[in-house]
Amino acid sequence: MARTALTLAALATVAVLAACGADEGAAGSATTTSAPTSASSSGSTATTQAKPSAADGVRLVGIGTFDAPVYVAAPPADNRRVFVVEQGGTIRVIVGGKRRSRPFLDIRSRVTSGGEQGLLSMAFAPDYAKTRRFYVNYTDRSGDQRVVEYRRSRGRADRADGGSARLVLIYRQPEANHNGGLVTFGPDKLLYIGTGDGGGANDQHGPRGNAQNLDSLLGKLLRVDPRRSGGRAYRVPSSNPFADRSGARPEIYSYGLRNPWRFSFDRRTGDLTIADVGQNAVEEVNFAKKGRARGANYGWRPLEGTRRNFDEPAPNAVAPVIELAHDDGNCSITGGYVVRDPDLPALAGRYVYGDFCVGRLRSAKLSEGSARGDRPIPGLKKVEQLSSFGEDARGRVYVTSLSGPVYRLSAG
Predict the structure, then answer these.
(1) Which of 377, 403, 401 is nearest to 390 (CA)?
(2) What is the tens place of the pLDDT at every residue in 374-409?
(3) pLDDT over 70 at 258, yes or no
């Protein structure tokens, strides 16, 4: 396994997510470019854990403590519910600010958890209120990643039907790291799936690795319609860039990724931002206007950020808009969201993200080919073991710590 994002000696049972460059650990400065994880659950009530810290009109408000939280999501148009994904295989639901005592979903018996493996995300179908369909991405008992459809219980709004599982997609993992693991619906109402390059260091599987190999699902952003179609588990949109290319997997939307942790769509514009974990030197953020990531090559493994990593071709590689150096203490980028919360004007239109090791939240104004004003959000306390971000139906942004706390970004 490649370098993890922090020293595990003091956290023997805590999973380390997102990670992994080489065998060295590297808050630091960022370079903007203009060219081409275990804690115990608390009680049944989700309350503020401590006095929020304010910074330029921004504060972190605790909503509860969970067991290795790795993602936060909410159903479309549901302003009462927030769902917290726990790495070990459970999903918790908060309703009106209070956590239900029983999990929404418990698939611990199906999940391999630890290191970078586990239950890594969930996504609600755009028509969830009618169809009750939602999707999860988890590491199975064989160490491979599965995207599985479930349905909410017909009679209980806060419980999933555990017997409704239907396999949509499995992607094989040569190693136990670089699992990707995010599923989310885009503005086109299709399901996007982020996959890592298969693990190890330097995308070592295959003559030139997986990320540049269009015949592999690994190191990619995939796009599918997850509804069953005839005898098939999902449909491939005809508009996918390689849908008709011989020797290429039609599910691929973008490629050349090492371990996309995480990606998101701007809820207002549909623009796509991908944070991609680096190897030895560079963490990166990639940005594309709506629809322009179609067929994009983000350069790994020939390139790590804008740094030449292998003397191999990376056709039409798109340069990142932000690079974070390991020399500044960064080790594993954690991607977030463009803030569209109307109650948080201090960060309006700015992309919020961070790094697992540094733990300081940063924000930047992104545009195609460049980023402006990339800086830490001043005054906010560090989020130790920064594992992920999330967004609810109102556009409020959440921050998760693998050690347990989950916070909401709020006005100061």
Answers:
(1) 401
(2) 999 988 999 999 999 999 999 999 999 999 999 999
(3) yes
Q: Which domains does the chain carry?
A: 30-411 (2.120.10.30)
- List phi, psi (to 5°) of 410: -135, 160
Give the C-alpha separation, 108 to 87, whole Å.
9
DSSP state of 225: B
Rounded Cα distance, 201 and 199, in Å: 6
* H helix runs in 33-136, sequence order: 128-131
Q: Give the count of alpha carbons within 13 A of 3, CB side only.
A: 20
Cβ atoms of 272 and 293 within 8 Å: the answer is yes
- Judged by DSSP in three states, 199 sits in coil
d(CA 309, CA 383): 31
Task: Tally the C-alpha atoms within 13 A of residue 186's C-alpha that lie toward its C-beta.
Answer: 23
32 vs 402, which has greater pLDDT? Answer: 402
Instruction: Name, in order, each residue with C-beta under 8 angstroms of 113's C-beta and a sequence gap of 6 or more.
Output: 15, 68, 87, 88, 89, 119, 139
pTM (2 d.p.): 0.90
C-alpha–C-alpha distance, residues 329 and 347, integer Å: 25
Query: Model confidence over 146-204: pLDDT tens digits?
Result: 999 999 999 999 999 999 999 999 999 999 999 999 999 999 999 999 999 999 999 99
pLDDT at 38 over 50: no
Q: d(Cα 4, Cα 174) in Å, to the nearest integer?
A: 17
